[in-house]
Amino acid sequence: MARAALYDRDDLIKRAKSVFWKRGWAGTSLKDLEAALDTRPGSFYAAFGSKEALYKLTLSQYAQEGMDNINALCAAQGGLAALQTYPRILVEDPAMAGHACMLAKTFLELKGQDHPLAEVANDLLFQMEQKFAALFVAAQAAGDIAPHRDPKALARRYQSDLLGLRVLAARAPDQAKAIARDMADELGGLSA
């Protein structure tokens, strides 16, 4: 009979995500992870295989949480309203405010080294962009966005704005909140 795990794997990934998000790939040692996860080297490797495998899991968890957040907003508010609300959440939610996007941080840190995790981060960023594009398409179909607008271009611009907004939130939170409101207003004007 297999032994039951003595830990909550999702919780361990969440704790590792916090360390990686704060310190980055290169700035996080195995000792840092073992301390944060309260594991020993043998159990760490048995649970995750490697630092890289764990980092990949944290990126996936991070991206899934972002998707879940936007999906919950869509269910509660509809596509365009969700797109208008999301930037405000990013700068006002204490769990996210003042933190740059983990996917963007990873991509920027590791792209120059041709590290495989840079491509993982890039793929996850692209999935988010596709999600935003789908929301713009739905808003266009609902008549909230003019037919001549390109949903893919809107999604790229929106994601770019979000990434910059998160950096600004770390530097100047009040200015970031004002820009998040401006983004919502601008999105509301896309029907023309």
TrEMBL record:
Pfam families: TetR_N (PF00440). Signal peptide: none annotated. Residues 12-56 form the HTH tetR-type domain. InterPro entries: Homeodomain-like_sf, HTH_TetR, Tet_transcr_reg_TetR-rel_C_sf. GO terms for molecular function: DNA binding. Keywords: DNA-binding, Transcription, Transcription regulation. This is AcrR family transcriptional regulator. It comes from Yoonia maritima. The lineage of its organism: Bacteria, Pseudomonadati, Pseudomonadota, Alphaproteobacteria, Rhodobacterales.
